[in-house]
C-alpha cells in the first residue's frame, strides 16, 4: 500500500464550501488509489458527535468562551488519539474539516480568549500534532451568510453576528500570513469546480515526492 502519512486540514468561515470541496477531493484521491481518512470537527467519534450536538444546539444559548473552547478541545483530543494518529500510522492521508486553527479563529480571535490559552490547551489535547498542510477557503462572511441562510437553520455558532464572523475571517488570514509554509489560501468566491482544481493542484504538488515505497 502507498504510504504517505500526511495530515491536511481545511479551514474557513461557515459557508465557505469546505464540506463540498472535501467530498470532491475524496473522489480525486479514490480515483488515484491514495489511501485516505476523512474526519470532521467537532465530532468524528462517538463522544465527539455528542459534544458537537451540545456545542451547536441554539437552545444551549450563551456559555463561557472557556467552556466552549475546552469542549472543542475535548472532542479534538478523542479524534486525534482514536482516529487521526492511527490513520497516520497506517500511512493514510488524513483530511480534516477544521482543526486547532478553528479554535484560534473562533474562540481566540473572534471570541476574545487569549491565544496562548487556546494554544496551550490544544497542545495538550492533540499531544502536539500539527497539520502538514492547511487549506484556507477564504470568503467574506457576508457572501457566506447568504449561501448559508439559503434554506438552512443556523446553529449556535452561525447565529453570532456578522462582526464575529468577520473577526473569524481576519483571524484566519493573520494565521495564514504568519505561517505561509503550512497555509495555502484559496479564494472561495470562485466557482466550485475552479476552487476544486486549485485544491487538486495544491494537494498533488504537496504529495509529490512523499510516496514511500
Ligand atoms: P461545521 O461543522 O463547519 O458547521 P456545519 O455543520 O454548519 O458545516 O462547524 C461547526 C461550528 O463550530 C462552526 O460554526 C465553527 C465552530 N467551531 C469553533 O467555533 N471552534 C472550533 O474549534 C471548531 C472545530 C469549530
The total count of strands amounts to: 5
Major sheet strand order:
2-3-1-4-5
Q: Count helical runs.
A: 8
Helix/strand-derived category reads alpha/beta
Uncertain stretches of 5 or more adjacent residues:
none
CATH H level, superfamily name: P-loop containing nucleotide triphosphate hydrolases
CATH class: Alpha Beta
Bound molecules: thymidine-5'-diphosphate
- Cα shape: globular
Reconstruct the topology from this structure.
Blueprint: E1 6-11, H1 18-31, E2 36-40, H2 46-56, H3 65-89, E3 93-97, H4 100-109, H5 115-126, E4 133-138, H6 141-149, H7 162-178, E5 183-187, H8 192-207
Parallel strand pairs: 1-3, 1-4, 2-3, 4-5
Helix pairs in contact: 1-8, 2-3, 3-5, 4-5, 4-7
What does this structure look like?
It is a single chain. The protein is of the alpha/beta class. The chain has a single domain, classed as Rossmann fold (3-Layer(aba) Sandwich), CATH 3.40.50.300. It has 8 helices and 5 strands, in the order βαβααβααβααβα. It is globular and about 45 Å long. The protein binds thymidine-5'-diphosphate. The site of thymidine-5'-diphosphate has 15 residues, from helix 4. Residues 14, 19, 40-42, 56, 72, 98, 102-103, 106-107, 155, 157-158 line the site of thymidine-5'-diphosphate (TYD).
